[in-house]
């Protein structure tokens, strides 16, 4: 009897539902069970997908660019163009907790001492060919960065890896207490002032170092550079002629070099930019906008065009993406549109004598440093060098000829 | 009862079901655009720049090596030899190739022929003197043979024994060294030969990344790859494998620990594969794991296992590193590019060959000078020329 009674009560209670939360007409919305159910459902699904998301990554470029593509017409409009030349915004998304402190670490490998007793030469020990290049192709590297705590890691990483191989490196600009050279010019920090900053830096460099260095190389704090390969490329050009060298892009009718992939101005090009191009009306007068594109536009207006920096097999030497991206990720559609040359993604993308990669995090800087300058293959040393005999002039001439032979002939 | 409420008893479940559906829709909508799965470790560094929610997710076990975006076809590096070769530039490596003959057998399974084995063959394994994939299906093009043993971790030891037996019976006298690797191991074969050049294949010795447990002399991590001398393989098959007092007769068990215990019992020494400066040559994880200090928790099992001190950071790894583990197919191609193609102009690390010395003699002497501090047979049983 007790059971029957319970059943009765239950049936009776159920029939009460429509009236329980005020109003029979708003079912099921008004019933808290519904919302509890919805909540549980959402939580369950999110937990499950979160677990899967943890194994996924959003390729930032692709996401942003494909979204922008959806609305755009076929012609890539400047305003809808992805912000890829300036990686500053990426820094905002970088993982803050992943701190690595290399400042106290002194790598055994960094001390140049000949391991004569083991019979093996370590690559950081300069030999004659690399010495000749270092002395003859004088490159001042300037790094586009700004003082934030997140950027300290990046500045430290580039400072401990590739910028050691510049003839001179200046950071525009970073904290004064880091042991790097940094210069404060009178400009406002921020993405909307990058063009203004670039102009000021170039004016400063021309004024202060215009006669001291042959080449002025701009990189970001997330660009990895193989300086020997940069010098090799530059050895085939005359710094007293206007040269504007990097990863060439074409937009509308302008040719410019991608900012993030790094670009070089010869001494003459820098001089002409400051004295002739800057005052022209074609040279954008404002402070903001894509600094790399504006620089190209400005230089184009005085007849300075980008150099084709592909190697003789047609592969790129200045790479707008990271080493990994070029080999693995889908080819971003914007890249195809901007490259004025035929480009083969993945295995045929990148020259053996590559100069730069972009979007390189501090972690990857150290990895690339290891693979480029430390890890060696026993018995297969240097496929790319010249005979190390004769005077410095003779060696340099050999290098210069080799560099000219190595350029793309299209 | 009010009209319209038809299933009162089932209503809570119905609501939950509706809720789940709504939750699913919300989740799908917020994650649908632009998710790409590239969760192998080198891109992890990339991902940090690209808005990742994770860190330290490089694979530490076989199940988390991500194959889902493995290239459909093997990639070819065309035209990267641009005629800039120094005459005789590969001569030392070619001489050593002939002198130190290595048979590589790679443990795989038929489900991995396309996603892994194919890419292993297209990258580093083509540099073996002989390559065999020990698998669960035959494939003549790939060079895979069916071991006819059940799948799964519980049969790994059985597979290892069978594989070594096959290799011993068919090839013992044709090769000098016998390397076992996984289909997610990347090996720099020239550097393996360089290390082995200091030894004779008639020494009972084996090399790899040495772990402490289960043995007195240490055993070699299976995933980082380990290599047996001809003498070691001969002893393993004739004295070890069928003797229950020496080798476990089971099919299960950790194959690397089992072979380590067995080899110790039959008198095969465990060599020191570090170089003369104490840097490791066999790496049980991906490069990032070793090169970045603080990447690995101090409580990680690895620190309890490792036999010799193993630095994290720039001092971890030898310039003549031999192997990395947990490398998926995409990373294989990146490593192939970074190690075999990308070169800084002018940096020349040629072997110094003295007047009147042969290339092989110079290479041998250099290999001897670079032996690990604790290495076996350091006095040399006989000098090689």
TrEMBL record, chain A:
Start-end of Basic and acidic residues biased regions: 67-80
EC numbers, comma separated: 2.4.1.122
Gene Ontology cellular component terms for the protein in this record: membrane
Region (Disordered) residue spans: 67-90
Domain Fringe-like glycosyltransferase: 153-312
Main location: membrane
Pfam families on file: Fringe (PF02434)
Membrane topology listed for this record: Single-pass type II membrane protein
Keywords: Glycosyltransferase, Membrane, Nucleotide-binding, Signal-anchor, Transferase, Transmembrane, Transmembrane helix
Location in the cell: Membrane
Family annotation (PANTHER family): BETA1,3-GALACTOSYLTRANSFERASE, GLYCOPROTEIN-N-ACETYLGALACTOSAMINE 3-BETA-GALACTOSYLTRANSFERASE 1-RELATED
Family designation: Belongs to the glycosyltransferase 31 family. Beta3-Gal-T subfamily.
Protein name: N-acetylgalactosaminide beta-1,3-galactosyltransferase
TrEMBL record, chain B:
TM segment ranges: 12-30
EC number(s) per entry: 2.4.1.122
Membrane topology per record: Single-pass type II membrane protein
Gene Ontology MF terms in the entry: glycoprotein-N-acetylgalactosamine 3-beta-galactosyltransferase activity; manganese ion binding; nucleotide binding
GO terms under cellular component: membrane
Cell compartment(s), UniProt: Membrane
UniProt key word Manganese: yes
Keywords, alphabetical: Disulfide bond, Glycoprotein, Glycosyltransferase, Manganese, Membrane, Metal-binding, Nucleotide-binding, Signal-anchor, Transferase, Transmembrane, Transmembrane helix
Swiss-Prot/TrEMBL cofactor(s): Mn(2+)
InterPro entries recorded: C1GALT1/C1GALT1_chp1, Fringe-like_glycosylTrfase
Function: Glycosyltransferase that generates the core 1 O-glycan Gal-beta1-3GalNAc-alpha1-Ser/Thr (T antigen), which is a precursor for many extended O-glycans in glycoproteins.
Protein name: Glycoprotein-N-acetylgalactosamine 3-beta-galactosyltransferase 1
Species of provenance: Mesorhabditis belari
Lineage: Eukaryota, Metazoa, Ecdysozoa, Nematoda, Chromadorea
